């Protein structure tokens, strides 16, 4: 008897293709965070203005988020592997341009190209996962691996950036992308070649409406976080973004060939998953925002040491992917999502135990629990959204997954950052030493970093007293924010479990 090895060979090729797909996912997520450590060196070398520095930071995530749905639809039309390879080549070239930039304008342009190229990668990767794994349970495991890759890349960003900047110039944080993208282009032949829906037309008006909606929403959220402009400007911008979003949704209902099937977001399981995605990303960014500051400014760790303390969270994210895969085979999605959100809530509870004595264990434990819980949650919700779409709209559905996460990230930074800022300033005002000069107290109210710098320059007992007041205010505000996240995630765990309780493990539809 001759053994039938065709199925085994196909499975091996599918998992090999998945390993290839994780590579660009790692690079994209790493590129989101790796720049932050390099900003002082970039400022010293290129001397950008305040506005130019803002654009250097923001243009990449803005274009990345704004073009995800559109690029997902383009991949559906021309073929996901083709778009993925073109995007990878563009990402590598733009990384080389960024590393060699000699002016702020050149770096801004390179970062813009990185955002455009990056937007082609994630939706196509998720769509190809569906193509590689037609079986729903195997697909759930594969999406969990991709989600873990994204989480690991984000966690490794500060660590890789710190290691590179310790030895090389600032451009090295971009140059590291080039060999990785070259490797991906070589290994891309392991991916399946899908020809796409060549007859489908990309509606340019829909593309413009989706881009405007996402960019305006993120701009408004960022303005609310930073307090930039007149108080009414962010609300006007947010209203305009909502109007473009509604116009985009209405247009999809009228088109014979919509950019994304309205049924994708109309399905109850998909709606709950999109909302859960937003909240999970909201909490992920919130925890990262405060954990890194605590380790460096309160615990006194170097950037590289802080990255090492956060590394267990990346390892835990891989465990979360494995756990999500097991639960996907043995239970309904509601169990995995509810369990993941509950673990994330426990992580926020651990982070709420931080203190001014600079103990790092609450941060290590909290980020590890968050790594497990959020990866479980995001992998299962992504699977539900992808499976809700017909195969020809898989790329656009991948864009919905990523867009919801980007909106959650922006909202988390804005809302949690603003809440902490209010609490921090109130704490500094209440505990600032009376002998400290008024201008020193005013500077200390801005950020903990400013407070530590000012306190170091004060003579006598005013400096240590101001430092203690600022660190106590920071830690107290962080505790309140983490407790608020705990309540929000615990409540969402209950709601999501109830709303998704009828969704079977092999289908997203109730």
N- to C-terminal distance: 44 Å
What's the number of helices? 19
Query: Low-confidence parts lasting 5 or more residues at pLDDT below 50?
Result: 1-6
Number of structural domains: 3
Sheet having the most strands? none
Please report the total strand number as a whole number.
0
Percent in strands: under 5%
How confident overall, as mean pLDDT? 78
Structural class: mainly alpha
CATH top level assignment of the largest domain: Mainly Alpha
CATH superfamily of the largest domain: MFS general substrate transporter like domains
| Topology-level CATH name of the largest domain | Growth Hormone, Chain: A
Instruction: State the CATH architecture of the largest domain.
Output: Up-down Bundle
Please compute the radius of gyration using only Cα atoms: 23 Å
Shape: globular
| Helical residues, percent | over 70%
Order of helices and strands: HHHHHHHHHHHHHHHHHHH
Write up what this structure looks like.
The structure is a single chain. The protein has 510 residues and is mostly helical. The chain has 3 domains: 16-191, MFS general substrate transporter like domains (Growth Hormone, Chain: A); 213-258; 263-510, MFS general substrate transporter like domains (Growth Hormone, Chain: A, Up-down Bundle). The chain is 81% helix and 0% strand. It has helices at residues 6-46, 50-66, 68-78, 80-99, 104-132, 136-165, 172-175, 177-187, 204-226, 233-254, 262-266, 268-298, 303-330, 333-351, 361-388, 394-431, 438-444, 448-457, 462-499. α6 packs antiparallel against α13 (303-330), α6 packs across α15 (361-388) and α14 packs antiparallel against α15. The longest helix is centred in the first third of the chain and has 41 residues, at 6-46. The protein is globular and about 70 Å long. The two termini are 44 Å apart. The model is unreliable at 1-6 (pLDDT under 50). Residues 17-508 form the Major facilitator superfamily (MFS) profile domain. This is MFS transporter, DHA2 family, multidrug resistance protein.
